[in-house]
Amino acid sequence: MDAAEQQGLSVAETRRIIRKTLENQFCGMEIVSVAVTEDQDGDGEPVLHVTVVHDTDREELDPSLLSSVLRHLRPALSEHGERRFPVMSFVAAEDRAEAR
Length: 100
What we know:
By secondary structure, the chain is α+β, with helices and mostly antiparallel strands. The chain has one domain: 2-Layer Sandwich (GMP Synthetase, Chain A, domain 3). The chain contains 5 helices and 3 strands. It has a 3-stranded mixed sheet. α2 packs across α4. The longest helix has 15 residues. It is globular and about 35 Å long.
């Protein structure tokens, strides 16, 4: 894989695709922000750390949908040539505010 292939999409384009996919998959989730950080895993493979901040009551989120998000996200990213694996984190906006 050459350097251009390793780079994948821009962070802004990756964030847009992730947000759109999540909004389609989780109609009831109010997404506050999506942060994407390029990194490498323990084996040196390129990955994307994705943090989704949402303002949705925990009771309204279906854990089975959250756990299946990669099944929908990987094909959406792959369609645009993004091959890096997304490592997902979901954070409630209230928890993020408390941590500050």
